[in-house]
Amino acid sequence: MEPFLTSTCLQEVKQKGLNIERLTMDGDSTTFTRVKRSLFPKLKKSNDKNHIVKNFGNELYKLKSKHKSLSNNNIAHIQKCFSYGISQNKGSTHGIKTSLDALPFHMFNEHSSCSATWCKPLRDENYRQTHILQGTELRKDFQNVIHGYTNESMLEILAHVQSTNANENMNHMVARKAPKTVTYSESESLDFRVSAAVAQKNEGRQYILQVNETHGLSPGHYTHRKCSVLDERRSNLAVKQKSVSMKRRRSELKAERMSKNFIDEVYEGKTYETAVGVSDIEIEHIEDIPPCPAECSETPHAYGQDDVIVFDLETTGLGTTSSIVQIAALHVSSGQQLNLFVKPKCGYIPTTASNITGLEFHGGVLYQHCKEVTSVAASEALLAFKRWLEAFGNANKESTKCGNNKNSHEKP
Q1: Which InterPro entries match (predicted)?
Q2: Domain residues for 397?
Q3: pLDDT tens digit string along 253-263?
């Protein structure tokens, strides 16, 4: 459907004597090939920057399943650096390659390959980098992902990326004039609604005045004033959207949505992801309980009490940004215990969490059931927990750690 509609629209453009030199679109090659063969033989293609950055992020999320230390915040920061590297070197394949090659070193706190134009640690010695990756295997896999974007053909694509934000804005205007919830496609008003959206995109709200004057309808004082106010509001909003504060706010709102989705998945499981509905199990067989196998093909591993450690974490909530407030662990065979109270990074403990854990945080002091307890920073507590675990290490085998919800919000 999409190649047919694009070809039809561009054919009308060609019939009006206009020539199109370049199309900005996603990775769909079918539409581009069809238009180039049938209409514009010299047509060139520019990829949409947002789609490229999103695909780059998807590759990083695939690494997250293997490298647990790669957090969502780290991935968002890497995507932002990747996007800046493309935007600041637009049209220069050499500049893009230099920036992208330096990105793995920058994320591992090595700045010898960075440029002072975008690397804050080089400009300010007192600047403390917050997003730092660790791990030899993660570094190797991250560099492999970057290498996929620094080959000659991909660099040529990145050097000429464009944005489809203007198209998305146009789609939004059309949707305001002709909502999808109403079937305007079968009415005669659809052409006028789309034409009104095009006029608003090109001329602003002043098109209303021009239409009235063309038809001999003198627009009144209120119409003049209303159109001027709407155009001024649109202009101010466009400037505001480009400000640093608004960009930061959009990032915060996106982080809140991701955190909320993560909390919902804790309770409900995954509801949206690629191939989430694909399953090898037939629907009619879901209700049937399979019989117990006569013999087990594999002998389950027998864990002895001497190599089992049970631990639990208390946090300020269920979100990915929740802070640890307590670490407790027990070595089953020896009976040795560990109990650490942690100062929350967020600086407070919500009432809902306090009602469950009995922990409160006031004035930099942690209380349990209204009694002050000794608490340390999260970094100190995790190091102490690590040393405590290493004390039960064995040269021949690794101890088994057992916990609750350790694959979700309580994963350390």
Answers
A1: Mutator_transp_dom (IPR049012), RNaseH-like_sf (IPR012337), RNaseH_sf (IPR036397)
A2: 306-402
A3: 887 887 787 77
